[in-house]
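sanity check this fold:
=====
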Amino acid sequence: MNRKYTKERYLELVDKIRTAMPDISITTDIIVGFPGETEEDFLETLDVVRKVRFDSAFTFIYSKRTGTPAAKMEDQIPDEVVKDRFDRLLSLVQQISSEVCGREVHTVQKVLAEEINDHKEGYLTGRLSSNTTVHFKGDPSLIGTIVDVYLDESKGFYYMGTLRP
């Protein structure tokens, strides 16, 4: 995919960042099934995911786009191989994210109230400074403000919380 860095350099940079800011939230985008990706390449990706322990990862299956250099490349990966790799990656990402994103449960955190929750009446949806989503009961007049929320429960990728006065 024409990356200009190595796995080792990437891991060194993550270590440097985490040393300077231990509570930093790190996320990534990962594409599975790019032409020429070998099983060894994919296993290296899983190794990076295990070592970095991303707060979240946006995972995608490579899709051939007409007119792009990649669409003309040989070694297109069969769909069943891509699907298997994607499922293995997603499983690992979800496991790690649920462990990492639960670290603030039972604490009071600053939350930017962003919008009315469209799944639960009377609730708002907001975000921590780490970009993790928090759902909590609140009045729509709070939207756009930063409020204190007790994080009652971690649901893996988001928290359920209680607004603090």
